[in-house]
Amino acid sequence: MPTRVPDAEFQDRLDAARGRLAETGADAGVWFGATSIEYLTGFDHVQTERPVVLAVTDDRVAVTVPRLEVERVEPNPRIDAVHHYFDYPGGKPLEAAAEMLSDLGVESVAADADGAPGVMGYEGPKLSAFVDVETQNWVQRMRWAKSDAEVELIRESARWGNLAHRYLADFTEVGEHPATVSQRASLEASRAMLDALGDQYVPRTRGDGPAHAGFITGEQTALPHGHTANRRLQEGDVLVTGASAEVDGYHSELERTMFLGEPTDEQAHYFELMLEAQTIAIDALGPGVEVSYVDEQVWDFFEEQGVADLAQHHVGHNIGLGIHEPPYIDRGWTDHCEDRPGRDDADAEMEPGHVYTIEPGIYTDEYGYRHSDTIAITEDGVDWLTYFPRDLESNVISVE
């Protein structure tokens, strides 16, 4: 029952980044992206208008943070030096980062961006105003394939997501409001998760709780990113659910199409087509398989069934520290890799450690139909991480 990334894993990641650094003429690797900083060091933060800048040399790790993060980052055993500025815009984040680099003896860097991202109104100078900059995406590529430890964290996320989804189904009744059903299911699953894990739980969340589940209903299901409508549940409703849990920053994805009461023949028909499409996609997964091939198989099925016009998105995406990560199971992925400098044929293929959501959907004018399961690629096949029943009967909520 793992609940955190092992310390040794961070050393492996830093060693890998230093290996990439050694292949360049740069003095340091630099990262502005919050997820990359977390991946390399374990320091997590909310990316705001206050930039955080990580620098890694062949023997040192340093970070520049706003003053309000100093006490949070100083205990991190993987960071050798902490620099700070008071705040933005009164402080000068990039100037402070440049001073950090100067203290490290750095004149040239390989960075994930030439400056901090312009989120929440941040407007600042480019890093290249202070040092020579070449860009790199080392960490993003490293994150494609998960280690065994990362896969286990995603599996643990799926376990608590499954419980949240079970509560969601149990609490769903005619006359209830989707928002309060979701809150109740998320609360009960989070309570169980915290009780079971005790001091092994890594406190990482704000507001939503460790585990969460919810759904969209009725005509909102016809929109892949529909919202929770302000309407109470009615007999005959189609529901598209979603459940997950956060385990040391890692996520899984479980979605089901459910029915409040017996579905109509038409609804059952589209459900079964969606389910078959998901099965086709899962059967196509495996190490060495072209990522684009999986989406092509589903698209061919949709065309054969005459419902290709009802599909609005690709089959799925990688998942881990990010809810959406590359590779994307998309018919264009192979061409995408060929068009990107530095990519090779292996980038177009699935490999052990990739963890994918498999979620082909069908969307009519009235309703949407989509399951999503989280599945890891192994050396010789696949490993299902989510496990809530997929069949029609198991996804019909009886109405008393």
TrEMBL record:
- All residue ranges annotated as the Creatinase N-terminal domain in the record: 13-117
The UniProt entry, under InterPro entries, shows: Creatin/AminoP/Spt16_N, Creatinase/aminopeptidase-like, Creatinase_N, Pept_M24, Peptidase_M24B
- Domain Peptidase M24 residues, every copy: 152-379
Alphabetical list of Pfam families matching this protein: Creatinase_N, Peptidase_M24
Superkingdom of the source species? Archaea
Q: What is this protein called?
A: M24 family metallopeptidase
Native species of this protein?
A: Halorussus caseinilyticus
What are the top taxonomic ranks of the organism?
A: Archaea, Methanobacteriati, Methanobacteriota, Stenosarchaea group, Halobacteria
